[in-house]
Amino acid sequence: MASYQLIALALVTIFLPTLTMAAEHIVGDEQGWTVNFNYTTWASGKVFHVGDTLVFNYKPPHNLFKVDGAGFKDCAASGEPMASGNDIITLSSPGKKWYICGYGKHCSELGQKLVINVEAETPAPTPEPNAAYGLAASCYQIFAAAVAVVAMIAA
Ligand SMILES: [Cu+2]
User: Fold this and answer.
1) Which InterPro entries does the annotation name (predicted)?
2) Fewer CB in 10 Å around end: N or C, the chain?
3) H or E element at residue 131
């Protein structure tokens, strides 16, 4: 059991650097999408890129509307909200994105609103950024592979 987990961990360690750099942002972290939380503070210092995802975790009566700048300012939502309680939004274009809760005064008085600025996709890393990095990365992958082999033998 533990060995399988170790193998899985080793494989992830080996392959993770080769995967896309897209990040997942859990809105509000463990607080989720709720009232009386400062989403401006949450978003500050974070960098959002095209291809990243936003995850909104919440329970009813909260919901989620993607709005424009005016809708954000006035807390005015139209159309059907997202309401799954676990809405995953892929940021598909650069620029400002606005999200609000459409329930009661959650947006207007209780701060349940989020604005982010999405930056263009991270350029693909160049194959050989520099020799030192390449060497370190190789050593790391060899080490990770060795861990995987040992884990498999131990299993
Ligand atoms: Cu709400």
Assistant:
1) Cupredoxin, Phytocyanin-like, Phytocyanin_dom
2) N
3) helix 131-154
